[in-house]
Fold this protein.
Amino acid sequence: MIAFYITAHGYGHAARSLEVIEALQQHHAVTIVSEVPQAFFRRRLGESLKFRPKAFDLGLIQLDSVRGDVSATLAGYQQLMPQSDELILEELAFFRDHDVKMVLVDAPALPLGAARRHAIPGLALTSFGWDYIYEPFARSAAGWSEVCTWFRHYYSQATHLLRYPFAAPIESIGSQEQVPLVSSAGRERRAEIAGLTGAHLDRPWVLVWFHQLDVEPAHLEKLPFEFFTVGSLRWPCCNCHQVGIEFLDLLASCDVVLSKPGFGILSDCLANDKPLVYVPRMDFREALLLEEAIRRYLRQARISQQDLYAGRWQEAILAALRVPRPGESLPVAGAGQIAQRILSFL
């Protein structure tokens, strides 16, 4: 059994990990350990899903899909870190009871310490460590230095790091290598979606990829676009729609994506050749690395947070639709290659 520990900070980590899990399961059983809702994984894995709800990091607690709650996150870690010894003992029992042969993380750290104690490989497959994200907070708030040290201690016990492209440095892991991106192309289903929702086929379609966003629907009704949302984000306006189809199929059927800079949505836009309108994030350090990659590899436009919340979207959306394709590209179908590299450590 391989135990794969996945942060519940958004769905991007889970989505890219799912691609690798599907490839791994052709050769070896995998148990997912995460507080991402089980249904998210079951849609892809079906009855083969082995799942254990448990969290070993807090990510960044969110006020909404753009703004984080830094103080609440720190308070959560000040409760979690004193439980470290107890949590490791719990994981050691889990390893013994389920014959766990390897630990993978994206990107909790403490399970790597448990893997070292149990003398099994502990691999990180990720684009950042949480100490990198939290490090700027330590300059202005007491307590964050201890959090960063806690993460570095357990990352340092990893056997190896498999590092995605445009990753943040994880200097505490000595043995590491770069691996390809993982994502898939969706299936274009525009006519079917129009029939289900009444969306106009002759207007640009915009996928709005946020879980929560406080925007006045009246502003959106005035815009010459059809908007599509997923999950809990819903607006009561005639040009805003939800439809129960696979996310990548919806993305492949839209003309442009509006989102924050996220590793998963960047990869999905690359795989499906879609432009991205992105809003900057001031409290999440990885966003600067992702913005650089977005400008390098995607058709894109930047929208300010002020314009995003005010519903002033038209200029940025039209700019992203007009911009020419960049000359550089990256392969994204790396799940099989990554799975084979992981299995080589068994």
